[in-house]
Specification:
By secondary structure, the protein is mostly helical. Helix content is 46%, strand content 10%. The strands form six sheets. The chain has a three-stranded antiparallel β-sheet with strand order 3-4-5. The longest helix is centred in the middle third of the chain and has 22 residues, at 249-270.
């Protein structure tokens, strides 16, 4: 039996490997090109940066002969499930009624469904469906679900929910359920994790174990609260998809049950009392009482919780958390002459990430703060009109990653929704959840 299963998996992988991509250069999407060319404002720097940001995803696309779309992250020749999900988000605004953009989005979602079947523990893949990196990151399972759900709600088109995509979602759900009790149910190991590749010990909490942060850095305590928050939203999306599209009540109930257990775990173990800020969300916990109080620029982050749809900016615990995160008490918060914001242990100390600045803007409660964030982002331009992974807030000419699609896609969305009156994309509802302290 074991041999036949392995043989079946190998046959599947071999078949996928035979799907040779069509070699193309930058993808030309008429609707996107027209939108970029038609954007004119009084500030020439904003105009240039918005145009470059909106067109950036086009440069990263390769169309494959199986009808899917491969979105590389930028200067690394691989597709990250997380990055690609964000890179196509601005194009959701142009999908309805535009066949080119719609085809790109459908192809992106279809490919992610295949990735989830190849290996749900992998976070990045190559064009020919080989695993590029096998760091288990919970958000890598959540992002494809939320992208498909958002596409459905934005366009009204449920035809993306094919049998093949259902198999991908089945793989994601089963993996999340298995990793609820990682010590007993999982065989996953990775050499960058401590304890011989197993990670630090954890207690059962109802939450889902994850080995790595969305920065691709190893977790210290493997219940990563921002990723748990995103999982709550994604599982709510999946429940609706299974119930209303696939008409599978059993899978819908499984998604809901897991969602409720993860939410209980967040509120029980992830909310911590601090003398200066009251109750705030921790970044990581282990269920034994150990915790890390900080944030990482990469999304899901604590700062991004309302953007993800987990909570509201007015939430009592979130407001306390945000105040802590945007202060020098947060060990990853840096202040320079040009910018101030959250960075990441993944890059140099004292380097600010545009992604974190964008999340500050998306969750701001005042126009003044939103404009201040935009000013800092424009000032971070080293001359190529693109946003980068991170930069020195005293000297933006010093930065990491010359080609990084994620922040540019977010910048497009930020300008559209915060300054051009475009409605925000739909997010899952958490109205039925009881948030502690709200």
């Amino acid at each position: 039996m074991r041999f036949s299963i392995v043989r079946g998996v190998l046959c599947t992988l071999a078949a996928l490997a035979l799907l040779a991509p069509r070699p193309v250069s930058a993808l030309e999407l008429d609707a996107i090109s027209k939108a970029a060319a038609g954007y004119t404002v009084a500030d020439p720097k904003l105009e240039s940066m918005y145009r470059a940001a909106l067109l950036d995803t086009n440069r990263q696309v390769t169309l494959a002969s199986d009808g899917t779309a491969y979105i590389k992250t930028g200067d690394i020749p691989a597709e990250w499930l997380r990055d690609a999900s964000v890179q196509v988000r601005p194009y959701l605004y142009f999908a309805k009624g535009d066949m080119q953009v719609d085809a790109l989005l459908r192809g992106t979602i279809a490919r992610m469904g295949k990735y989830l079947q190849v290996d749900p523990y992998a976070n990045a893949f190559t064009l020919d469906y080989r695993v590029w990196e096998r760091k288990f990151e919970l958000d890598s399972l959540a992002y494809p679900i939320t992208l498909a759900w958002t596409y459905w709600k934005q366009t009204g088109d449920a035809s993306i929910f094919t049998g093949d995509l259902s198999l991908g979602f089945d793989s994601a759900l089963s993996t999340m359920e298995r990793e609820q009790d990682h010590p007993r149910n999982s065989t996953y190991m990775e050499k960058e994790l401590v304890n011989g590749g197993k990670g630090n010990p954890v207690a059962y909490t109802g939450m889902i174990w994850t080995g790595f942060r969305p920065s691709d850095d190893a977790c210290t305590y493997d219940y990563l609260i921002p990723s748990e928050m995103m999982a709550v939203v994604a599982l709510g999306n999946l429940e609706e998809i299974e119930r209303d599209v696939y008409h599978n009540v059993i899978k819908a109930q499984r998604a809901k049950a897991l969602r409720d257990e993860v939410q209980t775990g967040i509120q029980t173990y992830g909310v911590q009392f601090t003398p200066n800020y009251g109750y705030i969300y921790a970044y990581e916990v282990d269920g034994f009482g150990n915790k890390i109080l900080m944030d990482d620029a990469n999304v899901p982050s604590l700062l991004s919780a309302p953007y993800l749809g987990y909570t509201k900016p007015s939430s009592f615990v979130y407001r306390n958390t945000r105040k802590f995160l945007l202060s020098k008490d947060n060990p990853t918060y840096y202040v320079g002459k040009i910018a101030r914001g959250i960075g990441s242990p993944h890059t140099n100390d004292n380097y600010v990430w545009p992604i974190a600045l964008l999340m500050q803007g998306f969750t701001a409660s005042s126009d003044g703060e939103r404009k201040d964030v935009l000013t800092q982002l424009l000032a971070s331009d080293p001359g190529d009109h693109l946003l980068h992974e991170s930069f020195n807030p005293d000297d933006p000419s010093k930065f990491t990653r010359a080609d990084f699609g994620w922040p540019n896609a977010l910048f497009s969305e930020y300008v559209m929704t915060q300054f051009e009156g475009v409605p925000s994309l739909p997010v899952g509802s958490t109205a039925d959840l009881d948030f502690r302290g709200d």
